[in-house]
Design goal:
By secondary structure, this protein is of the alpha/beta class. The chain is built from 13 helices and 16 strands. It has two domains: about 5-260, Rossmann fold (3-Layer(aba) Sandwich), CATH 3.40.50.880; about 280-365, no CATH class. It has helices at about 15-25, 45-60, 80-90, 100-110, 115-125, 135, 145-150, 195-200, 255-260, 280-290, 295-305, 315-330, 335-345, and strands at about 5-10, 35, 65-70, 95, 125-130, 140, 160, 170-175, 210-215, 215-220, 225-230, 235-240, 245, 250-255, 350-355, 360-365. The strands form four sheets. The protein has an eight-stranded mixed beta sheet with strand order 3-2-4-5-1-10-11-14, with helices on both faces. It has a four-stranded mixed beta sheet with strand order 8-9-12-13, with no helix packed on it. It has a two-stranded antiparallel sheet with strand order 6-7. A hairpin with a 2-residue loop joins strand 15 and strand 16. The longest helix has 17 residues, at about 315-330.
């Protein structure tokens, strides 16, 4: 069974009240490898500014480097870019994702099979810390908050990532549970309000519960002790078939207490194994051989060449990374590998020109 820690924040991921929560979690790790997934807010125009704010918070308030992992569109990415993102998640031990749109994040993460990578982080005793919109994606079903609250869509559920089944919980996950921004109208339950939440709950299968988290509150699922602790400003809630169990602030509850109220969720298939090869020449040989591990090996080659750069998955650094690996292969006399790397770029629409002064490249029209 996975032995890491899953943390769900109701909101306020960079607020002073959550700083101690982050610090205590980070202190559990011998060597911190923290990343931020920007997908949930990837549709916004201010993605760089949002990411910069989070990086500054981790650097200043937590004294921890935060590596930005840029993945804002599944459709606009290629296979190599997707594999690189999945590798970056699996190799981290503190994975953070936060505000934005639940339905947008779900549309990118589900075809990426991100849940397998998050499970691997827990299996490696790491920490997965999701807040706000990102929390909503983790249940068996996902409430499309923007579509209902902002657009007026009829009530419906999306199929969620079902990551909560990893810890044996069959539920949907709702942050901002005690939100009161509406003033004279009900914006509790992540802006759905009591009436709409009840109608949505009636549409759930009978064996699916609702896990709610108040704002500025953390639910910390410790898989070693198989328990959940509640920290921060307020409470958590477990709602099922008209019964509400309050997960009170400052308490620790055995997870079996929650599992006992619903049938066990469908188990997820084991995470796919990943290549452990790390040498550039060995990885180049795997690329040359082709087959199911070739793309993953190429992605690792690119990461090796990009060490020390920012982690945004863009065309230029990817191409430069492959070309750097190609130069290394040629220098060592492995010309077949170098030729294969050039073929990979050509097949991706990159024109490579070798000249007496070096190598240049351009995007094919």
């Amino acid at each position: 069974m996975a032995q890491g820690t899953l943390v769900l924040l109701g909101s306020g991921e960079t607020a002073p009240g959550m700083t101690k929560v982050h610090r205590d979690l980070l202190h559990q790790l011998d060597e911190v490898r923290a990343i931020n997934l920007d997908t949930a807010y990837g549709f916004q125009e201010n993605v760089p500014q949002m990411t910069a704010k989070l990086v500054d918070y981790f650097t200043t308030s937590l004294r921890t480097p935060l590596l930005p992992v840029h993945f804002t569109s599944y459709e606009r990415s290629n296979e190599l870019e997707r594999v690189i993102v999945k590798q970056q998640v699996r190799e981290a031990n503190y994975v953070f994702a936060g505000p934005g749109s639940p339905s947008y994040a779900l549309a990118q993460w589900k075809p990426l099979n991100l849940v397998d990578d998050l499970r691997q982080v827990l299996a490696d005793r790491g920490i997965v810390c999701f807040s706000s919109a990102a929390v909503v994606t983790l249940g068996a079903f996902t409430a499309p908050i923007y579509e209902i609250y902002k657009v007026g869509s009829p009530l419906f559920w999306l199929e969620g990532l079902n990551f909560m089944s990893t810890i044996g919980l069959n539920c949907v996950t709702i942050p901002h549970f005690d939100n009161n921004e509406g003033g004279n109208y009900d914006t509790r339950y992540c802006y759905l309000g009591e009436r709409r939440l009840q109608l949505l709950e009636e549409r759930l299968p009978a064996d699916v519960a609702t896990l709610g988290i108040d704002e500025h509150t953390a639910l910390i699922f410790d898989l070693d002790s198989d328990s959940v602790s509640v920290r921060g400003r307020a409470n958590g809630y477990w709602r099922h078939q008209g019964t509400v169990t309050v997960l009170a602030n400052g308490t620790t509850i055995p997870l079996e207490q929650l599992r006992g109220s619903t049938p066990p969720p469908a188990s997820l298939s084991p995470a796919a194994p990943t290549s452990t090869s790390s040498g550039a020449l060995e990885l180049g040989a795997l690329v040359l051989e082709g087959g199911p591990t070739a793309t993953e090996a190429l992605a690792r080659l690119v990461q090796l060449a990009l060490t020390g750069s920012d982690s945004h998955v863009e065309a230029a650094p990817l191409v430069e990374g492959v070309l750097a690996a190609r130069r290394g292969a040629k220098k060592e006399g492995h010309y077949a590998i170098a030729d294969k790397l050039r073929e990979v770029l050509t097949s991706a629409g990159i024109e490579v020109q070798d000249t007496s002064t070096g190598t240049t490249w351009s995007l094919r029209d």
